[in-house]
Structures are given as structure tokens and as C-alpha cells.
TrEMBL record:
One of the GO biological process terms: methylation
Example of a GO MF term: protein methyltransferase activity
Annotated protein name in UniProt: S-adenosyl-L-methionine-dependent methyltransferase
Source species taxonomy: Eukaryota, Fungi, Dikarya, Basidiomycota, Agaricomycotina
Secretion signal, residue range per the UniProt entry: none
Source species: Tricholomella constricta
Key words, A-Z: Methyltransferase, S-adenosyl-L-methionine, Transferase
């Protein structure tokens, strides 16, 4: 039976990738019934991170977390993944590490950070891990209760508490930053020193061309950024130009999609009234991040 399951997986992924993934599946769940379900789901295109991530237990599988992709490596962290929350990408990891190097934070003067559309919590949690302890108070907002639960679970996994006087902290709240009533109806504490976001930025024509492994499993609300892909950047600009939303000298760091960096930079300058903008490229040479200073 195992050989038939492997043949099914190989027909979908190719022998080399199937061999690797089948080994991970057996390692995590050797029972034939569970294995059959995993192979069926993977053959239909479901991301492996989701399939394996569902059965990981926070306090009982620390070795498993570092050895198979039921969790997603993100810098030195291993983060849980669950559908339909967006799986953290390496291009995001790259700019977050670069941002950590740029920030001047100390426990004597802690910085406050708001992550808009936090998803798995990957951005603020990595910054909490990289920056000096006691120097960062991070808060994530998302429209999805699934995302907020996953972000909270990842904070627990990474030993980042919601409250502490000596450690970096991370909290979450439900909120829709496209709504005209945001942030008045959200549980956030203004003003902020740092705004981060990897918002939905895929325009409609590109969304229709995405592979099924993305569109069938990852939340479209975390991907589709409106007809041009820029809806959420305009919303962020409206927020940060509000009085008392940012502290003097604040930084806004935004991930952008292919070909959007120049347009988002203009939005930050003209609509958000930010100064000293810059564009960072990812390791593959694509303009990936817009950084703006108040």
C-alpha cells in the first residue's frame, strides 16, 4: 500500500520531490489512514506546510518543528502554518532581517510597532526575536480570527509573551484597516514608532493566473489587493497621515508586489506625507520593500 501511495505522490510531484515529502509524511504520521489522507491532499495541490502543520503540537514536537516543513522556517524561527493563513515567504524574511538591523531600539526607550494584516505574526515575531529584549512592544491586527489564533500560537511557540517589562512582547486584535472606522474601533494604543505590513497586493489579472496551490488554499483576502493591487497601500497612507498615529521619526516598512515599488513610494510621499523614502530589493533582484520615514 505504501508503494502505491508513493507512486501517486510521484505522479504529481516527480520522483525526487515525492521521495523527500513522503519521508516527511511517514516521519510525522506513520499510520496508513493518515498517510493516505496526506498523499491525497498533497496530490490535489494543497501546500505541504498546511498538511503537516495541522498535526504539530506546540509543546510536544520541538525537534519535529526543526526537521520537517509542517512549520515554516522564518529567519531563526520556525513558525506554525495552518490554512487558510498565508504561508510566510523568504522574500519577507529577507527585508524583516534588514529592518531589524536598521532599527535603533533599546530597553531604556522601547519602540511600539503595529503590524497591519499580521497573518501568522511572522513579521513582528521575527523582529521581537532579533531586537534587544525589552526594546519592542509589538501588536498585530488582522481581519481573520484564524490568523489571530495562529499568530498567538506562534508567539507562544517562540516564547514571546503578551506582557513583560524585561522581554519583547506581542499582542493581537481583530480589525479591518480598510474600514473608515479603523483604528477607532480597534484595540490599539496610538501612537506608533514603527508600522509594518505585508498587505494583499495582487491585482485581479495576476490573481487569476496564480497556481491552484495558492488560490485553492490560501485566503484570497490575504492576497487580492483590489483591481490594481494598491488598495491597501492607499488605506495605510490614510492611517499614517492621521494626527497622533505616528511618533516623530517613525518608520513605515511595506512589502510590495512585482512592479509596484515606484507607485507605493509615491503613495507614501504624496498621500501619507512621509519623507526620505527608499526601495529595497529582495535576494532575487526584485523591488520588494518600500521604507518611509516621517
Amino acid at each position: 500500500m505504501a508503494s502505491k501511495l508513493f507512486a501517486t505522490l510521484a505522479a504529481s510531484l516527480g520522483p525526487a520531490q515525492a521521495s523527500l515529502e513522503f519521508k516527511w509524511m511517514i516521519q510525522q504520521s506513520p499510520k496508513l489512514q493518515h498517510l493516505t489522507d496526506m498523499v491525497t491532499r498533497r496530490s490535489r495541490g494543497e501546500p505541504l506546510q498546511y498538511i503537516l502543520g495541522e498535526s504539530l503540537v506546540l509543546s510536544k514536537s520541538p525537534n519535529l518543528l526543526t526537521s520537517i516543513p509542517g512549520s515554516q522556517p522564518f529567519g531563526p524561527l520556525n513558525l506554525l502554518t495552518r490554512p487558510p493563513v498565508l504561508i510566510p515567504r523568504p522574500e519577507t524574511e529577507h527585508w524583516v532581517i534588514k529592518l531589524a538591523d536598521r532599527l535603533s531600539a533599546s530597553s531604556a526607550q522601547p519602540k511600539s510597532l503595529l503590524d497591519l494584516g499580521t497573518g501568522s505574526g511572522c513579521i513582528p515575531l521575527l523582529l521581537c526575536h532579533l531586537l534587544p529584549q525589552g526594546s519592542l512592544r509589538a501588536h498585530g491586527v488582522d481581519i481573520s480570527t484564524h490568523a489571530l489564533q495562529l499568530a498567538t500560537d506562534n508567539a507562544t511557540l517562540c516564547a514571546i509573551p503578551p506582557e513583560s517589562t524585561s522581554k519583547n512582547t506581542f499582542t493581537v486584535s481583530l480589525g479591518n484597516f480598510l474600514s473608515p472606522s479603523f483604528p477607532d474601533d480597534a484595540k490599539i494604543n496610538l501612537p506608533y514608532d514603527i508600522i509594518t505590513s505585508n498587505p494583499p497586493y495582487i491585482p485581479w489579472d495576476e490573481y487569476l493566473q496564480l497556481p491552484r496551490s495558492v488560490t485553492a488554499y490560501e485566503d484570497p483576502k490575504a492576497l487580492f489587493g483590489g483591481p490594481t493591487g494598491l488598495d491597501f497601500y492607499h488605506a495605510i497612507a490614510r492611517l499614517v497621515r492621521r494626527k497622533h498615529f505616528l511618533r516623530p521619526g517613525a518608520i513605515v516598512a511595506l512589502e510590495v508586489g512585482h512592479g509596484q515599488a515606484q507607485a507605493v513610494e509615491r503613495i507614501m510621499r504624496l498621500d501619507a506625507h512621509m519623507r526620505d523614502t527608499e526601495i529595497w530589493s529582495d535576494p532575487w533582484g526584485k523591488e520588494r520593500t518600500v521604507l518611509a520615514h516621517l
